[in-house]
Please model this.
Amino acid sequence: MIFSLQDKLRITAKLDEFGISFVEGGWPGSNPKDEEYFRRVKGLPLKNTEVVAFGSTRRSGIKPSADQNLNALVNSGVRTVTIFGKAWDLHVKTVLKTTLESNMDMVYDSVRYLKDHGLKVIFDAEHFYDGFKNNRDYATGIVRTAADAGAGTVVLCDTNGGTLPHTFSEVTKEVVSFLKVPVGVHCHNDSSAGVTNSLMGVLAGARHVQGTINGIGERCGNADICQIIPALELKMGIRTSRLPRNRLKSLKALSMYVYEMLHMHPNPYQPYVGENAFAHKGGVHVDAVVKNRVAYEHIDPDLVGNLRLFSVSELSGKANILAKAREFGLCVAEGDPVVTRLLSRIKEMEFHGYQLEGADGSLYLLMAKELGTYRKLFSVLQWRTISESRDGGFAAESSIKIRVGDKEIYVVSEGNGPVNAQDRALRKAMTEFFPEINRIQLINYKVSIAEAAEGTASSVRSFIEFTDGRSNWITVGVSTNILEASKQGLIDGYDYYLQRAKLRVK
Model:
């Protein structure tokens, strides 16, 4: 899974909003993108999250001061770093091709070097559980060494994901009993036990849990934070550090956002946040849930920002629309025929490739128009965008004519690409009437293939995220023409802001 630099910065901001304590931002010594990330992330006004740089122990046969990776961590500008070192003797001998004693020194020297440079150190004991099984004394010696060298937290990693819960719990409990620093766990999902092992680790005394949103990761993935956090909070009564009590309601939105960044379809069967997580089919189940939702639901879906679905009828879709309308502050009665019209319209749009869940800007406009509360503030009469090569270079130009009331304006703008030219032209025209949109920044833009792929003739979906410095909103557009899809998203993004702000035409 590859994120762009902008994706990484936006996801970091989202994780901060949600209340995640630590975010491993990347490996500053490995590539220019990660180095730029650590420069740019300093400009984010993070309130809950500490960004951590990631790397490895020094290479065999060189001093820490000569190790490029360790020095990149020192120079990354962070306060805390995570480094991994081998805890499985098999890896030491066959992968690193060094001695057990040399690897032990590599762990101690690396942690000590980083500590001596004023950094807090989280040490990931890679392949710890396999190492413990193969050579118990050596694996435990590695974590003791890391702690003795100054690591503030030692994380036990089930890197191959093959350890089952009963073994995982026993081993973790033993390490917690003798290690004098906090213990963490890092689980992969190759045996479908990543989440379970993480929870068992906490019960065994671990106080630091690593994972990923939606469990995204190599092979079968990592432990899914979207399952771990609600299990700890709602079922085990364990508060997760820095997580505001009401923040769980945004869990599904966070999950959807990360899926969108990766152009991945959300997993409908994902616990807690999946579309089917609280879906009920006919007969006994639906009857029971209508009478008492506890009969077939392990938690209230609203606690994690999800919704209850009754797939035997349109009841669930209508309930979802009513809930969203209330969230937007729109007035609609339960029996109003407009609800049925909205449901049909949304289903039709989703059939054509729209993903409105999470795209509150587009969804609000759709609802407002159907409910009759939408006030048309401007019309786009004409739009033309040209992209061409000039003397080996590249140029893009866009012209637009808009009407506001009885006035029209025509402008032309250039950009570093056709979408940028479109955006500049639209802004230039609209600021003549709505100077308030100068507060708006476009902070993310992505394009992906919509539902039905037909090569270069496929429909594409634009995903555009805006901010005014106080709130963020997302719009989507779908078309076989990438510029048309982008135009829809741009227009809706500015229109949403004006509608919500109830601005008057000047």
